[in-house]
Amino acid sequence: MATVSYSYKETRLNLEPSSSSYIVDIELPTLTQGRGPRKSSRSAKAAAKNEVARATTSAIYYRKHHGFPKAFLWRILEDDTLFSIRTVDICKPKKASDANLILNFHFQNPIRPTCVALCDPSDHDALSVFILDTTDQLYSIFLRPDSFCKRSFVETGLGDSCKVSQPNAFRSNFKHPYRLLAINNDQLVATLSDGGHVLFDKNVGHNALQLPWKETFYNAKGWLRSIMKARGDLDITAAAAAVQTNLGLDTASFLFTVCLDHRLRIWNLKNGQILGALDLLNAARDPQETGKWQLDASQTNLIRIVGSTEGKRICVTYSPVGPGEFKFWMLESDDGNSVQVDDLFPDDQLIPTPPLGSDVWTLADFSVTERSATRGFRMWLLWKNNMAYRVQELTFLIEELPLAWQQRWRSVFSDTAVPTAQVSGPSDPTGPTEKWLELIFFPGRFPRATVEAALSAYEGAIGKPGSSSSRNSKGLAESICSAIASTSSLNKSSSGDMDHEQFRNSSEMQWRKFYRILLELDKPRGEALALSYEPETGMPWVICADSISAIRECSELEQIIHNPHATFEGSNEVPTLITSGINFIECFSDSMLQICHSVFRPEMFEESSKSDQERLQFVSDKAGFWRQITEEDAAQVTDALGQNFNLVTTRLYDRVLGTLNETWDSQYPTEYPLTELGRKIIVRAVQDLAELQWNICFSQLILLVHMEFEFDRPEDALHNRVEVGVIYRNLLIILKRLELVRWLASTQLTTTLPKADKSSSVSGGSPVAPKRQAEEHRVLTALEGNIGHLLELPELKAIPSDAMPRLITNIVADLCSPASNVQLVPQYIQCGLLVRDRADLAVELTPFCEQDSFSTYVQGRVYLALKDFTTAATYFKKAAFGMSTSHVHPERHSSGLLDETEWNLLFAGLPRYYAHIVALFEQQKAYSFVVDFARLALQFVHGTMGDVDKVRTEIQCRLFSGALATSQFELGHATVVAMRDRALQHSCLRALIQRMCDNLHNSELVNLTFPGLQGAVDDILAQHCTDTVDVITGVPYHQILYAWRIKRNDYRGAAAVLLDRIQKLRQLGEGDQVTGDDILDTAVTRQYLMLINVLSCVDPKQAWVTIEGPARPIRPNSSAVEELSKRKVVTLADIRKEYQDELDRIAAIQNDQFGFAADDEMEIL
Fold it and tell me: DSSP assignment of 852-920, as one string?
């Protein structure tokens, strides 16, 4: 491995769930009272110390007998008292539910990290977990698939699913377990510290409750020496690693142990006999040098057994002594009672070569798997150096292993570059705060717990301790900004002006200080714990302390970038051009890169009438990057691409563009949708690949502009032999696609959880710790939310067994390609964002949208949701023609934004389209725009339309509502008059009168003509007068009706209104209240004067009115029957007499002339 060949790339994922509701905490019982209930978890202690909870031991278990869920990631945390398990399948059957729950089992006593074993019963679709704690209690946990899908399945209690027993072998410290293996659901093997082991067989007899396991002891030494080792010290024959196999024979069961004395021992588990023992490297050892070859007890990944041939297996062992060396053994058995072990390469030293560099690397784990009976084997190595790790891979046929060992190793590229925010300049539109927040809260980069720990550490460093409660109330981002802002202040410079530059530099320095703390806390999360490989899919994983890395194949472009000196398609031209572009812009400052990006942005999104040459000239002049190009920079490009860039051709650029435009069309039916973890892998890989492709495409655009104008003679110009314009446009198309993909992959959304995933109430007897139910949502990226349901894989049985790393890269590269099979339609994405009430995000996609009518309509919906009604109205009017023209088969896709009723109003003529727009503005209570568009709709209503009356009536109704809401009463009047539906017309008329009277628009109401509706108006006002009791403080309906009738020369009607008001004034007892300087000037006397004047305006013979019921107070000498007559005529003379009587009554009251009893008559003098 003289040169490193990178063929794979890792995609690191956080283990933070998308919702806290996915976490289920379960308290397990105990048989002892040694520790008692847990008073505080380690997570709380870690938070107090600004630490992040990290696993000490972790692995992935793959079920052999059943399907989804198949892969399970288990971790041990919190001082070895928490056993956490979750599913890590990438895909699932179409009808299967996501298994997103994380089960956290809390133990009362610490777990033995090496004594955790998992298996899947062949006769039950379940997972069995066996765990020994430090008090030697054996826990048997039985988990069904629903345990990871439905909270209710776990929250109802484990019941018989969890059993605790105390093996007799470990009582009184007689034996000490060292490792635990699960052979099957009914049989366990515990290796012991004295070199022996205990075989546990499940008891199915009548005493199974008292003795759940039958225990059988086997030891390589005599009983005396075994008892001597009962203290728990490790004997050199203790198994550092162990694996069980039956070599494909149903009646056999063998245990292979790699012991601390550097020997491989083979046990027959049927009878407990040792079938053989040999040195790990098949070498003769001097018994006096045992200590030289003794293994470290912490080295546990030393043996793997692979193969599928009956009676034959290949055993791979690793000796960490010295430089480290592998051995490949052939295991054979015919009868199941013996095993023949042969060294396949006795003359070859298979020593792995560590990663290049001066660092000291240690082989931490390895995996070997058989690809197929004819395709050979694949081997993965995990190297560690403190917190760093590297992965290598080798594919080989067993017969050519020595040659392949020397020449065919390939490496996994680990991106160790630390991202940082660009420096903010004085002309930068965004400040340092926005840039750093975008960097820190980039999806999948840092978990929330790590950021919170960094904030606590930073607050401690600046002497400003914060509390978690205040952070929860303000939000994490706001808390960070508050802490950093407290260290910087805006002061005045020596000239007396505000020193913004000093404030910006101070803020930048504090952000970098906080970011360094964050990186230091994040670094231990990436410590590798184990390497895992799934044989069925060929998916390798690196399991870290608080993350997991999926290993996928490199795309063509990634192979070029990570292997710059390798050839591509038989030459190095493509790598040379790509690396020249990247190297060329390395000399650019952050501000220059921002300027170039701002210049290219309108080139991507706006249609230009300029020629290609004019566009290139404009970019060159506007960006002005040539100012930062030195002679050395230009010479580097010339040295790489030749004089006058002779290496550059149109065909070469086509090949470069091809690497940026990889597509994938599966040759197998894709019927298996991705799980949430699978979607996260895709999103994280898209983030990495899109960023890489964007940088390359951006650098190629700048390099192309530079080469176009870098010539000595006009005939040497690049456009004379290269189609510069076509290449420029194609690069812009790719860059636009990548901009959209990057936005989708970096934008986070919050969605509600499906009902099945939500937490439910917990009964008092349940062992599940009650969860806080305030958070019932999950966080995901816009890419996952919009196209996650489209991402599917072929059935695993239909594809090669190791195709998963390639499939993931195919999907990711296809998503980044402009020619992708997955269409990223911006307007549809905007519709989905509007459904989620995220118009603030939807508006950011406006530049990506096309200019078709539906896109324009969606822009109107976006600005409508943002309350920018003027802009929304402009877009709706622009889209009117296209959205109203009839289509034979219109595409009805809007991500749920439009329902069936709304779709029926589109592509059905302008009236219905504008009616739909009117309804949208009405929902937003933008009534002025309701009026405008309702008028537009009525303009296009014509008699040839179907249901013309229904459409017109609906629009008129909305127009009337808008006019009423905006107090456009004349428009409301005109609309009511034009209505043809009499019932609706009368209802609207009543509403119009009510609104105008309530708002005291009395004179306007009286002056409106109401052709054909004057009688109805009079009736409505008369009814209001009849219903009115308080004629003083309420709406003056009597005065309005009086003015209405006077305006229309109905004097007798006006007189009747005044007569009714006089009666109600007397009933209220307000008739004697003096309203002027004269004591005879009361509300009643004034009404009498108005009444006399009105009746004086008509012919004397017509000066009378009729009244219903009693018109005056009942007199003592009159009969009640007469006074309550149905109808009575009152003449002008009667009214004058009543007026005079009223004046006399008031005068008598003022002179204290009134009776002392109810039946006394006043004596008028």
Answer: SHHHHHHHHHHHHHTT-HHHHHHHHHHTHHHHHS--SS-----TTSS-HHHHHHTTS-HHHHHHHHHHH
Q: Is residue 231's pLDDT more than 70? A: no
**Encoded tokens for 926:** 């933008």
Q: What is the side-by-side order of every strand in the sheet holding 325-332?
A: 303-306, 312-319, 325-332, 340-343
Number of C-beta neighbours around residue 373 at 10 A: 9
Q: Are 566 and 393 in contact (CB under 8 A)?
A: no
Helices (H) and strands (E) in the chain, counts: 38, 35
Cα–Cα dist 84/104, whole Å = 4
**Cα–Cα distance, 735 to 414 (Å, whole number):** 25
pLDDT band at 1125 (very low <50, low <70, confident <90, very high): very low
CA distance 930 to 915: 9
Is 342 in contact with 282 (CB distance < 8 Å)? no
Which of 812-833 are b and which e, b meaning 16 or more Cβ less than 10 Å from the residue's Cβ?
bbbbbbbebeeebbbbbbbbbb
Tell me the C-alpha distance between 581 and 417, whole Å: 20
For residues 852 and 39, the model is more confident at: 852
Does residue 1115 carry a pLDDT above 60? no
CA dihedral 463, 464, 469, 474 (to 10 degrees): -140
Which three-class secondary structure string do you get for 236-304?
Answer: CCCEEEEEEECCCCCCCCEEEEEECCCEEEEEECCCCEEEEEEECCCCCCCHHHHHHHCCCCCCCCCEE
Residues 6+ apart with CB under 8 A from 654: none
Distance CA 686, CA 878 (A): 36
Encode burial over 883-893: b for 16+ CB neighbours within 10 A, e otherwise.
bbeeeeeeeee
Tell me if the pTM is above 0.70: yes
Q: What is the largest CA-CA distance in the chain?
A: 151
Measure the CA–CA gap between 973 and 976, rounded to whole angstroms.
5
Provide CB contacts within 8 A for 698, sequence distance 6+.
585, 596, 597, 600, 735
- Running DSSP on this structure, what letter comes out for residue 137? P
Tokens representing 320? 């960490």
Strand-pairing partners, residue 23, are 102
Tokens of 322: 């010295």
Looking at residue 581, its pLDDT comes to 92
* Tokens, residue 315: 């055993």
Yes or no: say if 741 and 783 are a contact pair by the CB < 8 Å rule: yes
Residues 246 and 335: their CA atoms lie apart, in Å, by 11
Bridge partners, 199 (sequence order) = 189, 216
Distance of CA 507 to the CA centre of its chain: 30
Q: Which residues contact 657 (CB under 8 A, 6 or more apart)?
A: 727, 730, 731, 734
CA gap 664, 326 in Å, rounded? 39
Two structure tokens written together for 265: 């021992």
Lowest-pLDDT choice from 249-253, 375-379, 473-477, 771-775 = 771-775
Q: What is 637-650 written as a DSSP string?
A: HHHHH-GGGTT--H
What is the pLDDT, as a whole number, of residue 502? 73
The CA-to-CA distance between both ends of the chain, in Å, stands at 136
Q: What is the residue whose two structure tokens read 């779709």?
A: 903
Q: How far is CA 1125 from CA 1058, 1110, 1111, 1120, 1163, in A?
A: 20, 7, 10, 9, 29
Handedness of CA 797, 799, 801, 807 (dihedral sign): negative
For residues 204 and 567, give the distance between their C-alpha atoms in angstroms, rounded to a whole number: 65
Q: Which residue has the tokens 């024959």?
A: 237
Q: Which backbone phi and psi does 951 adopt, to 5 degrees?
A: -65, -45
Q: What is the CA radius of gyration of the chain?
A: 44
CB 937 within 8 A of CB 919: no
